[in-house]
Amino acid sequence: ACEIHIFAHLAAPPRLATGSAAMADACKGGPEDQKVFVDEDGVMWGEDELGRYRIDDRVWTMNEIRDHPLFMTDIPSDPRDIANYPMLQALQSVLYDDQTPEQLAEHFRQQGNEAMKMQASQIALQNALAFYTKGIEMEAKDDKLNSLLHANRAAAALKLGLHLKVVDDCRRAVRYDSSNIKAWFRGARASEALGLAEQGLKFCEGALKLDPKEPEVLRVKKQLQALLEREAAAQAEARRGDLKVANEKRAAVATVENLLEMRGSRLGPVLFDMSMYRMANGGETPCPKVVQDEGGGPEDVAIHWPLLLLYDEVNQSDFVATFDERCALEDQLQIMFPDDRPVEWDEQGKYVWNKLVAYLEYYPEGSSETSQFRVDPAMPMMEVLKDRCLPPCLVFHVLVDGSPAHVVYCKTNDVA
To answer: Between 20 and 30 A from 103 (CA), which of 84, 338, 342, 350?
Structure first.
């Protein structure tokens, strides 16, 4: 079997170990004009008319033979994979080292064009992208060439559905060369696919300056104009809808304020950031709303309040989206803290509805800071809220009556 040896010429070999037994063994069987030496580290060196060189007498493995360019039966289909083949990279550097950036960029452009001829294959399109990208990376000084590279890469990306990348490349292409009509047109098509009618029309305008009668550009322009009209109509409808919702909200707040004024109460500032509770409230910011039952009499009109229940001792909270003010607080607490079912965070089982006390926050007259008072849990909320300035979401601090935490809370907040 034939053995293939690897060698490399070196300018400065290490010190020779002449006269050793290893050297004598290495010389056996060599040509008469070949000098072979083995240094003290056991490395074999040869010397001929070209100079000294290191000898590697390892037998090549099948993997090394397979990956050598002379024996390869397959070339990597993806140009990006060449980094995994050092010998191919070395061969590539020999081919390209004497080329200018412009020559290399043009070479990669042509390679990309060849890949585009097989555009029915997604792999071919990806290869085209890789070749055009490699050409752009050459940083050629030729603006027209750079424009072609970006426009061609946009063509490959357009077929792959990469519309954002298409628009980006087309912008660059027309900056390099404003006469590149294909770049203008591809930018218009990608913009249409993205639903960006106004941007697409600007690309069309650029193309039509170069060729006012280009049928494909005129066709896309017409489609974009129709899309822009639909967008404008949709935006106008959305604005009307937003205005209607805003007016309804203002009317609802005014209705609440009028009803509260009849009771000597009013709405004050929002006490807590309620954005985290919007999802639990159907996507709307929690606020009180007036409701009227079927009877239609004064007793059938009430306010539904959002409630925030804070359990300071355990750093927990509950949000109630709708609470009818005709009910008492204990009605709600009885649902949430029944005798026979403690909540998950109540490890001691001490939070039971009839063992709890609640303190409501409100704004004293002329103050921007809140105070608190103890609520009678059996009293209808409508009576509790009379003659108070209240936040839009009622805030209650709930504790176990007589517990050490309750005692501390009363002292800290000056409440009984």
So the answer is: 84
